[in-house]
Amino acid sequence: MAAGGLALLMIVLFFIFSIIIPFWVYSDAQQNSSYSAVLWALVAFFGGLLGLLLYLLIGRDRTGGRGGNHGGNDGWNDNERSNEPDLRR
């Protein structure tokens, strides 16, 4: 009986984490990734722990926020948002 209870507990935990992990990845990717949060949530859902590991290794921007150097702002055009003159001429 104890083995059956343990197996049931493992199955329940598996399903709980299968739902919690993609939701966490989605909310974290909205804040910390310049890539699509929905795409990363799908990777975590279908990939399980491997999908979570992929997100943690390559999905999060090292700068910690949207607009990382994935085709976005590379820092060279910041003078448009500031009052400082452009001295690169």
UniProtKB/TrEMBL annotation:
<keyword id="KW-0472">Membrane</keyword>
<keyword id="KW-1133">Transmembrane helix</keyword>
<protein>
    <submittedName>
        <fullName>Phospholipase_D-nuclease N-terminal</fullName>
    </submittedName>
</protein>
<feature type="transmembrane region" description="Helical">
    <location>
        <begin position="7"/>
        <end position="25"/>
    </location>
</feature>
<feature type="region of interest" description="Disordered">
    <location>
        <begin position="66"/>
        <end position="89"/>
    </location>
</feature>
<keyword id="KW-0812">Transmembrane</keyword>
<feature type="compositionally biased region" description="Basic and acidic residues">
    <location>
        <begin position="78"/>
        <end position="89"/>
    </location>
</feature>
<feature type="transmembrane region" description="Helical">
    <location>
        <begin position="37"/>
        <end position="58"/>
    </location>
</feature>
